[in-house]
Amino acid sequence: MMRKRRGVYLLFMLSMLFVGACGKRPTEIDNIDTAEELNQAFIDVSKAVEIVLSPDEGAQDMLATETFAEKRYGTNGDILWEIVYSRRNEESGFYSIYHELDVEENEYLVQFFRVDLKTNEREMLYESRNPDRLTEIEVTDSFLYWTENVLYESGGVATRVMQYELATGEVRCIAESEKMVHAELRVSEQYVVWCEESGEGWWEIVFYDVHKQEFHTLPGIKRSTLGGQGAPEILAGFRPFSSLDIIDGGITFFSEAGEGNTYINRYDLNTRTMDAQLLIEGRGTEMAGCFSSKRYIGWQLGDRLEGRKYYYYDRDSGSLYCIRGENKKAGLLSQWFSDYLYFHYKDPDKDGDFLFVLDPASGKVWQQKLEGYGRQFREYGSGQVCVEVLTGEEQKLFTIQIPQ
Q1: CB 387 within 8 A of CB 375
Q2: Which CB contacts under 8 angstroms, 24+ apart, belong to 94-102?
Q3: Element (H, E) at 236
Q4: pTM to 2 decimals?
Q5: How many angstroms from the chain centroid is the CA of residue 302?
Q6: Residue 332: beta bridge partners?
Q7: pLDDT tens, residue by residue, 163-191
Q8: d(Cα 58, Cα 210) in Å, to the nearest integer?
């Protein structure tokens, strides 16, 4: 699977011939039509209907099946390498390998591989030389995307959003910016979304229409200062999102509502308008993430020390629900929301993670013990969800099927 360094360099030089120049996005910003508040009073989280996730090794549903697996890390001569991300679309699996060629000289190499899910054969698609850091990769049925940090000779650092067309092998740099420190890249068949810092604690959300090849920028979103004057930076504000997952054509983010309160906003990428806005009583520093679909708006409270809770609001019925783990020391470490809610559940008293899937409409819960530790969820195709799982020596990708 690993190639000699000499051959790697040659293939890289050939592949660079097909890389397009970085796109230049306009500086204009889109106006946001603010939605009417869904509720005139604050959401009272104490009145939420509670759903407790209780791991039971004797009551296991067959949810996740292994799609492919790779060795997590190793050496090729004196070069260290590691698997960074695993993804899939309808037809294939994908993963990236990060090589440390010469750390002192800032020489790195990233390789992208495709896995034939029928034959289990691997094919190297592309190599990117000297990215200071590969931060994310995402895939659709048509394109592979990634962000990479690059070092300028002046000492500055910029982030590029890259696109690889799976049918032709054409590589394009969609955008490059020194403000894209933590891009939070997310994609769908039509949109590529990321964020940029715009100075003094403000953020901008940028999205690129793949079909129209147009850039759009949402107005600056200010970090909350609900921690109070003089509070440490980590307490003085919160990022307006933990990710920008595209669900039902929309993205979700926090904004400050004043008087120590917070808005949760759902923005529709197709209409370029605010689809919904929920007013929450509470300090933004307690909120670690938010998500939404056309029907539900959800958010996360707490941290690993206090125990995380997830709330979701049903826009159709006006009902509010709270999801927590049975063990307060346990962590709901990550989530994904599609037609169902997906959770990793880490109990410090047990080995490995549990996978929980919740039907928000009926309240039905499925669970499965994972032989390892869950990482990122992703959606592909028409609502299918997959999840990365780390074992001692391997990184695996599992596909999740809900029992019918």
Answers
A1: yes
A2: 94/137, 94/139, 94/144, 95/70, 95/395, 95/397, 96/134, 96/137, 96/146, 98/134, 99/8, 101/5
A3: helix 233-236
A4: 0.86
A5: 19
A6: 345
A7: 999 999 999 999 998 887 667 899 999 99
A8: 47
